[in-house]
Design goal:
coiled coil; disordered N terminus; 4 strands; UCP020408; DUF2325 domain-containing protein; disordered C terminus; mainly alpha; Rossmann fold; four-stranded parallel β-sheet; 15 helices
Length: 483
């Protein structure tokens, strides 16, 4: 028998056929598929098969013959000629076949999915996840006419209708046997098996031949499975190695491709750059670029001269603007100073009005609202030429003014005594030496004498300082309050 055909029929073949001992008596009782006796006959030219398990003995055989199915025919030493062709009036159904044929038909002609659908439809008692139990139950149901066996009959007729039509054209048992051999060679036996077993002209010998072929095919398939499994493992290992090598080669090829693409891109960039340089070179050689560069240079020179001239004007304007800002700030400061002096002088003039003070400088000035709390003021520094005006203004305000020239002619050693004898100290910072300034500041801080440092040695500045003293704008301990 052709080995490829055996491997093709791996799926769906019955696996319940046991190893059969040699015998001349063949009793169709399959202990794995169903129970009960079936028709029997003998073979003289081939090894007979016995569906009893190896543990079955003589007593089991006798019990089987006495069972309720004892109507089965037991043929002993029957010549092979008695199993000749048979002629039936109608095409046999599934339940009309010998019980031994149900196992290979169910296992070979029905796929597992079809068997599961059949089990769900007719509520098999076997678990749906137990393929062998489902097979056994389907084989048992096929032995008699019932809704399940009728459904299997209709399904197989529809599924293998083309094979039924092909075998229907065969009229003799010899033609059936020849067609079966061709099917075995091709490796397609499921449809031919169903068409052969249910053909009216099929003899018992031909059916037995098909059964034997399927039975031996299952053994070959089982033996081939182990070899195929080993071969499959080897092929899978080889496949993994080839895939790994292919991946490495593919990665190397991809790297080479990326490098080639990068090289092509670089070449294209160089080609474009070369073409651009060639065009520029042609323009240089033709003199057109020199002319254009000369024109651009002249235009740039003109623009440069214009910008230089404008920059000079801008610089001059900025310098004038800076001078104007400084003048403006100085004038504003002078204005503020003049306004402050004006306000101070106005205040002093209002204080010196007859209506405000009838006896300026008298003893009653102490109670006047315009009088200062500081009745004796030490004035350090200032302008010597304005000393008389300082005294006159102070006298109008009822103030006794003591003067020290800030170390120009008078000794600085007199300052501590003069500071202790005065109520307050005025010191114009722009008309005094640094040495005198620090002497005044240190001694006032030591004795806590009110002291006011201010800018402006004129009469108006003196008047403003006196007014500030009147408002209490001075700091004890010699802290500055300059304006």
């Amino acid at each position: 028998m052709a080995k490829p055909a055996a491997r093709t029929l791996l799926a769906g073949l019955p696996t319940c056929l046991p190893a059969l001992p040699t015998s001349r008596i063949w009793i169709g009782n399959c202990a794995n598929c169903a129970t009960g006796p079936v028709s029997a006959w003998s073979r003289t030219t081939r090894e007979a098969a016995m569906c009893f398990t190896p543990e079955s003995g003589k007593s089991d055989l006798q019990s089987l013959i006495r069972s309720e199915y004892a109507s089965a025919l037991v043929a002993i030493d029957m010549p092979a000629a008695s199993a000749g062709a048979r002629t039936q009036v109608r095409r046999p159904k599934l339940w009309d076949l010998d019980d031994k044929h149900h196992c290979p038909i169910i296992g070979t002609c029905l796929s597992m999915d079809e068997l599961l659908r059949l089990a769900r439809r007719f509520h098999f008692a076997a678990p749906l996840n137990d393929e062998f139990a489902l097979h056994v139950e389907a084989v048992g149901l096929s032995r008699s006419r019932n809704p399940a066996s009728e459904a299997i009959q209709r399904h197989l007729d529809r599924k293998y209708s083309s094979w039924l039509d092909r075998f229907a054209k065969l009229k003799s048992d010899a033609e059936l046997r020849h067609s079966w051999r061709d099917s075995m060679v091709r490796g397609d036996v499921a449809g031919p098996l169903w068409a052969l077993c249910t053909h009216r002209a099929a003899s018992v010998a031909t059916q037995q031949q098909a059964y034997a072929d399927i039975h031996m095919l299952s053994h070959q398939v089982g033996a081939g499975q182990a070899a195929d499994a080993r071969r499959l493992m080897h092929l899978e290992k080889e496949n993994l190695e080839l895939k790994s090598g292919l991946k490495r080669e593919l990665a190397a090829l991809r790297r080479q491709l990326a490098a080639a693409e990068a090289g092509l891109a670089e070449q294209e960039s160089l080609r474009t750059e070369t073409a651009t340089l060639q065009k520029r070179l042609q323009r240089f050689e033709s003199g057109q670029v020199i002319v254009e560069m000369g024109q651009r240079l002249m235009a740039l020179q003109t623009t440069h001269d214009t910008l230089v001239s404008a920059s000079g004007r801008v610089w001059e304007v900025e310098r004038n603007l800076k001078d104007l800002r400084e003048d403006t700030a100085r004038i504003a400061a002078e204005r503020d100073s003049a306004l402050a002096e004006r306000d101070a002088l106005e205040q002093l003039l209002r204080a010196m009005e007859p209506a405000g003070c009838d006896k300026p400088g008298g003893d009653d000035c102490a109670g006047c609202e315009h009088a200062l709390t500081e009745r004796c003021i030490l004035y350090v520094g200032g302008r010597a030429s304005l000393l008389a005006q300082y005294r006159q203004l102070a006298g109008r305000l009822g103030i006794s003014l003591i003067h020290h020239d800030g170390g120009q002619e008078e000794a600085l050693s007199r300052l501590p005594e003069l500071i202790r004898g005065a109520d307050a100290v005025l010191c114009p910072t722009d008309n005094i030496s640094h040495n005198a300034y620090y002497h005044v500041k240190a001694h006032c801080k030591r004795v806590g004498k009110p002291c006011l440092f201010y800018k402006g040695g004129g009469v108006s500045g003196f008047a403003l300082a006196v007014a500030r003293l009147g408002r209490g704008e001075y700091s004890l301990a010699g802290s500055q309050a300059e304006t």
